[in-house]
Amino acid sequence: MIGIVIPACNEQQYLEKCLHYIRLAIQALPTLSREVRVLVVLDNCNDQSLDIVQNAGVDYLQCNFGCVGKARDLGVRHLINSGATWIACTDADTCVDIQWLLQQLNHQPADAICGVVEVDSWRNFSILTRKKYLAHYQDVMNHTHIHGANLSFSSTAYLQTGGFKALCCHEDVDLIQRMRNLNLKIIWTNLVRVKTSSRLNARAPEGFSSFLHQLEITSRAVE
Fold first, then answer.
1. For the chain, what is the HEC assignment?
2. 96-106 residue pLDDT tens
3. What is the model's pTM?
């Protein structure tokens, strides 16, 4: 069984669209590979995220961690205990590619897969920021990027490394580094793709949105 974990903290603006694209990715799988369970981990939510998840008929857990690392770990371990052998992680403000799951299957055997992200819109940013980002980002095979919004792994590898730590940011980088230390098979691919929001109100203090925001600040200083 494939398990999909989505941590969410007040994501009513994006969550419905996120779940829609996950349904499309599940439908793109061969019929025999469609045993997929989606789990949203609602962490400190006080908006309409719970209603959206319930209306979508998706499984969920509720917690009050205020910590994405703990929320991801809770969801991953819950799915592993439910029989999941492969876990795919994304974020609530992210839309997965329709072939997101299919490409993960095509890259097997693997202990972990690091995919790439695209920014869904550059309307909030200057042209210089976009140029800087595109010059920095490696949208190629064998890239070096690690994104919690596009990270998947086997249950065996996850348990072997001890799982996500209770970190409020960079929990994804920390996990992959420990997998590398154990010489596990990690595939770095741009065929496993997602689009993530370009919002400026970042949830993680040093996450992807914060990176874009800081890039915009430095670009404006140059201008």
1. CEEEEEEECCCCCCHHHHHHHHHHHHHCCCHHHCCEEEEEEEECCCCCHHHHHHHHCCEEEEECCCCHHHHHHHHHHHHHHCCCCEEEECCCCEEECCCHHHHHHHCCCCCEEEEEEEECCCCCCCHHHHHHHHHHCCCCCCCCCCCHHHEEEEHHHHHHHCCCCCCCCCHHHHHHHHHHHCCCCEEEEEEEEEEECCCCCCCCCCCHHHHHHHHHHHHHHHC
2. 999 999 999 99
3. 0.90
